[in-house]
Write a structure and sequence with these properties.
Layout (H helix, E strand, L loop, with lengths): L34 E6 L2 E6 L12 E5 L1 E3 L3 E6 L3 E10 L5 E7 L15 E4 L2 E8 L14 E7 L2 H11 L24 E4 L11 H9 L3 E8 L14 E5 L1 H12 L4 E4 L1 H8 L11 E5 L14 E4 L7 H10 L1 H13 L10 E4 L14
Parallel strand pairs: 1-17, 3-12, 3-14, 4-11, 14-16
Antiparallel strand pairs: 1-2, 5-6, 5-8, 6-7, 7-10, 8-9, 9-10, 12-13, 13-15, 16-17
Length: 367
C-alpha cells in the first residue's frame, strides 16, 4: 500500500460531535447556506457558501469535478463471517473489482482479516476475494488488508447492473440514517463513476454558478472518479481514473498567464490537474489512471486556491490542503473552524483557501 510522504503539521482536536450527521437540507439549511470560511494571509472571513463569488476575482478559473456518484454499497453474506457491507471502490481494467469489506449493518469499521478465496454472496451474484489490493500488508498499521481485488461471478458487468438496481450510496456510521443517492450528487455530476461523492462541490447551486460567471469567473470541468475515502492514517490515495480535456487545459493556462487564480473545487480536482502538468508548468490534456499524491514535499504547480470541506487529523487530504494553502494558513483556518463549530465530512461546511499568489509553490506562469 502506498504510504504518505510526511505527515500533516496542522494540529487540532478530532471533530467528534461537530461531524455533520445529515445533508444540509435535512438540517433546515439550503445547499448553499452551509458555512464558508474564506481564508487569506490577510485575514479570515466567516460567511455562507452562497457568497463565494464575493471572494473571487474576474479572470479566476474555478475547476470542478463532473464525476457523478454511483450506488457502490450493498449488503452481502460472507461464507467466513456472515453479514458484511461491501463497498465497490473501482472496476479494474482486467475485469475485476477493488472492494472493501466493512462491518454490518452500518459500515462503521473496516474488516481487516479477509482471506483469499472468501466468498461473498448476494442474490445470484458471488464476489470472491483474490488478493489484497494493491498488495499484501495494505494497512499502514500492519493490522491486515482493507482493500481486495475480487472477481465477480457471473461477470463484472453483473455487479454494475446489481448496484444500479439494488445498491445504495456509501455511508459511514456518523450519519444519523441512510439518505438517497440524489443527496450525494453535485450540480456538476454528469459522468457516472465515483464510489463516493466529490463532496467539495456539494454546496454549489445553479444560482452560484450564474453569479460566478456574471462576476467574470470561469468554470471548467475535469473528471476524476473517486474510490473509497476511508483511508487509515498514513495511507495514500489509490490510483483513480481521471481526464483533463484540452479546453480546460487552455482555460487554466490562460488564467495563469494572466496572473489569475486557478481554484480547485476539492482534492479530486487538485489531483487531476496536477496529474496533467508538463515539466515546463503547462497543463495539457491527459487521461488514464493517476497515482499522483499532492503533498508539501511534492507541491502543486497549477492550483493556487482551494474550495474544500474539513478533513480529519492525519488524513492524506489534509496534506494536500497544506500543500496548496501552506501550513500556516491551514493551521489558522482549522483553529478558526474548530473554535467556531464548523461541521465536518461530506455534508458539512466549507473552506475557501486563498494563499498569497506571490508565495505560491506553483510553477511560474507559462509564457
Amino acid at each position: 500500500m502506498p504510504l504518505l510522504t510526511g505527515h500533516p503539521t496542522t494540529r487540532f482536536a478530532a471533530p467528534g460531535s461537530s461531524v455533520a450527521p445529515a445533508p444540509a437540507e435535512y438540517r433546515g439549511v439550503a445547499r448553499d447556506g452551509v458555512r464558508l470560511l474564506a481564508a487569506r494571509p490577510g485575514g479570515l472571513a466567516h460567511t455562507t457558501f452562497r457568497h463565494l463569488a464575493d471572494h473571487l476575482d474576474a479572470g479566476d478559473v474555478v475547476v470542478v469535478n463532473n464525476s457523478q456518484t454511483v450506488a457502490a454499497a450493498w449488503d452481502a453474506r460472507s461464507d467466513v463471517r456472515g453479514p458484511v457491507v461491501l463497498h465497490a471502490a473501482t472496476p479494474l481494467d482486467d475485469g475485476t473489482w477493488v472492494v472493501e469489506l466493512r462491518t454490518a449493518p452500518d459500515a462503521a469499521r473496516a474488516v481487516l482479516d479477509g482471506r483469499p478465496g472468501e466468498r461473498l454472496t448476494f442474490g445470484h451474484l458471488e464476489v470472491v476475494l483474490l488478493a489484497p489490493y494493491p498488495e499484501d500488508g495494505s494497512s499502514p498499521t500492519g493490522a491486515g488488508n482493507r482493500l481486495w481485488k475480487a472477481s465477480v461471478r457471473p461477470s463484472r458487468d453483473d455487479l454494475a447492473a446489481h448496484l444500479l438496481r439494488h445498491g445504495r450510496p456509501i455511508a459511514y456510521g456518523y450519519l444519523d440514517r441512510r439518505y438517497p443517492l440524489a443527496d450525494y450528487q453535485t450540480v456538476f455530476g454528469t459522468r457516472p463513476g465515483s464510489a463516493e461523492m466529490p463532496s467539495a462541490a456539494r454546496p454549489f447551486t445553479p444560482a452560484i454558478v450564474t453569479e460566478l460567471v456574471s462576476h467574470g469567473v470561469a468554470i471548467a470541468p475535469i473528471t476524476l472518479h473517486t474510490g473509497v475515502s476511508s483511508q487509515e492514517a498514513g495511507e495514500a490515495p489509490l490510483a483513480e481514473r481521471f481526464e483533463v480535456t484540452d479546453s480546460t487545459a487552455r482555460l487554466v493556462n490562460a488564467a495563469r498567464a494572466g496572473g489569475s487564480r486557478v481554484v480547485a473545487v476539492g482534492t479530486t480536482v487538485t489531483r487531476a490537474l496536477e496529474s496533467a502538468v508538463l515539466d515546463n508548468g503547462l497543463l495539457v490534456a491527459r487521461s488514464g489512471w493517476t497515482t499522483r499524491v499532492v503533498t508539501p514535499a511534492d507541491p502543486p504547480r497549477v492550483v493556487t486556491g482551494l474550495v474544500t470541506g474539513w478533513h480529519d487529523p492525519q488524513a492524506s487530504h489534509l496534506l494536500l490542503v497544506e500543500a496548496v494553502a501552506g501550513a500556516a494558513l491551514t493551521q489558522r483556518a482549522y483553529d478558526a473552524a474548530t473554535a467556531g463549530g464548523y461541521l465536518w465530512h461530506e455534508f458539512g461546511d466549507a473552506a475557501l483557501l486563498l494563499p498569497d499568489l506571490t508565495d505560491s509553490s506553483s510553477a511560474a506562469y507559462p509564457t
